[in-house]
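Lab channel / #folding
Pinned by the channel admin:
"Please post every new chain as: sequence first, then the structure tokens as a reply. Keep commentary short and put observations after the output so the thread stays searchable."

First post following the new format, from NK:
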Amino acid sequence: MYKMILTLIFVASLHAEIVDGVAVVIKGDAITLYDVKKEMKIANIDASKATDILIRKKLEELEIKDKKIDVSSTEIYEDIKQTAERNNLSVSDFYEAVRNANGLSSSELKEKIKEKLLSQKLYSSIAYSHVLEPSEAEIKEYFELHKDDFSHPSSFTAIIYNAQESARLQEKIDNPMFYSPDIQTNEQVLPYERISPELASLLERTPLNSFTPIIPDGKGGYMSFYIKEISSAEKGGLESMRNQVSNMIMAEKREQVLGDYFARLRHNADIKIIRMPE
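Reply from TO:
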């Protein structure tokens, strides 16, 4: 009897701790205070906005489950393979490039790819059939209203450092005066339009007079770019940006449909707000 009372007290205490840590309950699934605080920190937003984002994510997860949407390991690998090929890298080199550039392990990258593919399938089941391709008038109007969104550096002047061992390159990055015959250098002007989107993004994120993270060079070695100069931004004309403009319009239309869909879902869902972070 004494043991039973102790067990009941322990269970009650444990339940209280769990409830104290819960911020929102959606259809029986919990969003914790930790989740909310983490989202606030990552997105630099207040508790209310963070909670709205997490509720939307949770509703998406539940919809994926209800609709029995799944992504196979083959689909994940094919997506990674295609991205690697666009960058002239093997899959193993691509994994290493992502790890060096973003700090993601191969398993973390696969998980992010899975999340992306699941979202695409969910969106396809909800929104794609409701979205019409933009007309020529829509494309022209959108481009005129968002011209600044379609500007980018015209080119990067960079010194490209190559070596067979990443440790050698790291020595160079840590000490720019370091010299080794194992490291080859090649200064190039890299036009924005002629490099892959992934490389362009990496170079744009790198401050002037700084090295990029070390990435595989696609030939069994490693490379890092030292950014010497970034040419002034240029705005692409409508013809060169037509596909990008169309894709952005479609994305906004899809999000509008999805936003309406999940707003109705949220209105009808069993959602309990327990408490917010102080």
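NK: The chain has ten helices and nine strands.
TO: also worth noting, The first strand starts at residue 22 and ends at 26.
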